[in-house]
Write a structure and sequence with these properties.
Layout: E1 21-25, H1 40-54, E2 60-65, H2 76-88, E3 92-97, H3 101-110, E4 114-117, H4 131-140, E5 147-148, H5 155-164, E6 168-169
Parallel strand pairs: 1-2, 2-3, 3-4, 5-6
Helix pairs in contact: 1-2, 2-3, 3-4
Length: 174
């Protein structure tokens, strides 16, 4: 007779590197009566707290608080509020944000783990719409990784972002 068996485990399993928990909240995620995103920061914080509990204390997160469902621009006042709370609670926050150097500096001062400014609207593939802002914020943000997160559509766009001094580029592989 043939019997199924498993070979003995000879090598310990390698622990995977922590991957960020990505949660995106926007107008479509909120009740219809609340389309102005008055509670977007609170929703993001609540969702990431729950996720951390479900994932045994996972603290590396990507925070996206979107302002609307058409442009997918970040809602920066709500993003700042959520980032402040999450950092204070021990999260390592990689934050999707506008390319406004002043907002990026505020996120750095809050203690975020990485700044992830957009180059153009998410999914647009329009490339770098404001290279001046990116250059300024890359000069200002020296102690954190800066990963350009949206709108980069071609390899040449990615090369330009890296030439400007970014630490990385997030490309849509979809």
């Amino acid at each position: 007779p043939v019997r199924a068996s498993r070979p003995p485990l000879r090598y310990p399993l390698r622990q995977p590197r922590p991957r960020p928990l990505i949660v995106t909240l926007g107008a479509g995620d909120l009740p219809a009566r609340d389309q102005q995103l008055n509670h977007a920061a609170a929703d993001a914080v609540r969702t990431l707290r729950l996720a951390r509990e479900l994932l045994d204390g996972h603290s590396l997160v990507k925070l996206e608080v979107l302002g609307d469902t058409e442009t997918l621009f970040p809602n920066m006042p709500e993003t700042l509020a959520a980032a402040k709370t999450l950092v204070a609670e021990g999260f390592q926050v990689m934050v999707y944000c506008s390319d406004d150097p002043l907002m990026c500096k505020r996120l750095e001062e809050l203690g975020c783990a990485a700044i992830m400014p957009l180059a153009a609207p998410i999914g647009s593939g329009l490339g770098i719409q404001n290279p001046v802002n990116l250059r300024i914020l890359l000069e200002e943000i020296q102690d954190l990784p800066v990963i350009v997160d949206a709108g980069v559509g071609t390899a040449s766009d990615a090369a330009i972002v890296m030439e400007l001094g970014a630490d990385g580029v997030l490309m849509n592989t979809g």
